[in-house]
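Recap quiz, item 2
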Amino acid sequence: MSAPRWLSPSEQRAWRTHLALHKLLMHRLDRELQEHALSLNDYEILVNLSESPDRRMRMSDLADATIQSRSRLSHQISRMEAKGLVTREDCRDDRRGTFAVLTDDGWATIQRVAPFHVASVREHFVDRLTDDQLDALETAFGPIVDHLKKLR
Amino acid sequence: MSAPRWLSPSEQRAWRTHLALHKLLMHRLDRELQEHALSLNDYEILVNLSESPDRRMRMSDLADATIQSRSRLSHQISRMEAKGLVTREDCRDDRRGTFAVLTDDGWATIQRVAPFHVASVREHFVDRLTDDQLDALETAFGPIVDHLKKLR
């Protein structure tokens, strides 16, 4: 390996600020969701299912969409089944496996909690950035997202 | 609660891009660290301890610095103790509790792995942004970090 190219002070500041922001923000959003008996992981699954046709997704697609391993997702779905938010369904016509399906209770839950969650996202992130900053964020991060998706 | 102020399409894009970037990036950095038998959590603890006087930190300070609960940190430190990277030490003069201390092996590990990790951070993030973008990131996110820290 050639000599390490350590981060410059300004690169280091930007990198650490980025890390700290994300960690603090996820912690805060998770905590505010807990007032509604959901975790941030629960919420993300509910959003994905609620936006899918028939409110259902193949487990493998849901794992991809939420960027986690099949085994971690499986534990997560078990916890949400216990809460009555989702069910698993095998598809007879399709050997590619199991679906996660939003229950009526899961649908009611996301409808009820979404206004509070969007208020949290605004209060702690979106409303603290100008439109130009939000556009710049997408311009800067969009190509990195594309790059990282190709590596998965 | 008043009528929800849903995110506009451009706000939604920026927010989701931000979430996807961070998740994909952490996944990638964690995976590249695993080639060196470390997780991203391990690495963060090693960095914090290696930058502290006498390579040691009070557990409560380390929990604050890494933005996690005392109980989660305690499990994390137990795993790292088992790997020989850190030890716990009680401080006789100080009732405020236990320290986490970097071992010689932990110090050697961070020295050995840091060049690889910084190369990952450059390849998948820092070198994909211009200096102006990095500065803009710090300008945008710094005040949000300050806001969120006050809420903890």
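Helices of chain A lie at 9-34, 40-50, 59-65, 70-82, 104-124, 131-150.
Residues 25 and 124 of chain A are 7 Å apart (CA to CA).
End of item.
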